[in-house]
Specification:
Helices cover 39% and strands 20% of the residues. It is α/β, with parallel strands linked by helices and 270 residues long. It has 2 domains: 201 residues, Alpha/Beta hydrolase fold, catalytic domain (Rossmann fold); 58 residues, no CATH class. Strands 1, 2, 3, 4, 5, 6, 7, 8 and 9 form a 9-stranded mixed β-sheet that branches. A hairpin with a 2-residue loop joins strand 1 and strand 2. The longest helix has 16 residues. The two termini are 25 Å apart. It holds the Pfam family Abhydrolase_6.
Length: 270
């Protein structure tokens, strides 16, 4: 993979790109508890047949930014322009899924396909039926944040997003957990500038997403994420839903081979 930099108003976006071939390129957008390193297994796997890229959003990884409002859609477009990508398949996890969806609605001509992984969806109804397990882990996180204990807050966010709140803390171990704690730890210590949402949120516009779409969600993910994923797959006219067993909010990081196989099947059908 080759590092790259893209200068935009208020920030220098940093990422990696590689691969070659005639197949549609892939652009990966990371979750709000990760950075571009979360996609390493996907970048390596898919670079065998196509161009691939990933970048750190403002406030994450090695991207620097001023504390001014910005448009994630404009940042994605700037990266695509700098990389010479007229069209690409966007793959977004969590908040990266939100931004991929917003970009698709703003620039449908630039998106050949859309893969949403445990996506956030702008404008989704407020979720209220929280299980006790989620409320318990959330309360622990609030207490750690109030105490200014960022190390413990990082561990609790790993429990919430990597393990899944209905599972024991530390379910996911080894290099994956170490990487999560480093990625999210950096983000906790480098607050992101405020992202400006689109004028009309994505939730009531899902039927306008006409490109082939795949929605992937872990069965251990939070209930509002599973609900939003199911709704998005139902409303987008050319979408399919795949539920990955035994994984939480970061299936591409936690189970890369299983995730890559699903993405391979989707890409072969484009």
């Amino acid at each position: 993979m080759t590092p790259f930099e893209v200068s935009v108003p208020g920030a220098t976006l940093r990422g990696v790109q590689g691969g070659s071939g005639p197949a549609l390129p892939l652009l990966f957008l990371h979750a709000g508890v990760a950075d571009s390193r979360a996609w390493e297994a996907q970048l390596t796997h898919f670079a065998r047949a196509r161009r691939v890229g990933a970048f750190d959003a403002r406030g994450y990884g090695h991207t620097t930014a001023e504390p001014t409002p910005f448009s994630p859609t404009a940042d994605i477009l700037a990266v695509m322009e700098a990389a010479g990508l007229d069209r690409a398949v966007l793959v977004g996890n969590s908040n990266g899924g939100r931004h991929a969806l917003d970009f698709t609605l703003a620039h449908p001509e630039r998106v050949a396909g859309l893969v949403l992984v445990g996506p956030a969806v702008g404008g989704a109804p407020e979720f209220t039926a929280w299980p006790d397990a989620v409320l318990h882990v959330d309360a622990l996180g609030e207490a750690a944040e109030a105490a200014g204990d960022l190390d413990r807050l990082n561990e609790i966010e790993a429990w919430m997003w990597l393990d899944g709140p209905g599972c024991p803390e530390g379910r996911v171990t080894g290099p994956v957990r170490t990487l999560f704690l480093d990625m999210n730890g950096r983000a906790l210590r480098t607050p992101a500038p405020p992202a400006t949402p689109p004028e009309t949120p994505a939730y009531p516009r899902l039927a306008e997403v006409t490109c082939p779409a795949l929605v992937v969600v872990g069965d251990l993910d939070l209930p509002h994420i599973r609900q939003a994923s199911e709704h998005a797959a139902q409303r987008m006219p050319h979408a399919a839903l795949e539920v990955m067993p035994g994984v939480a909010h970061l299936p591409a990081l936690e189970a890369p081979e299983a995730f890559n196989a699903r993405l391979d099947r989707y890409l072969q059908a484009l």
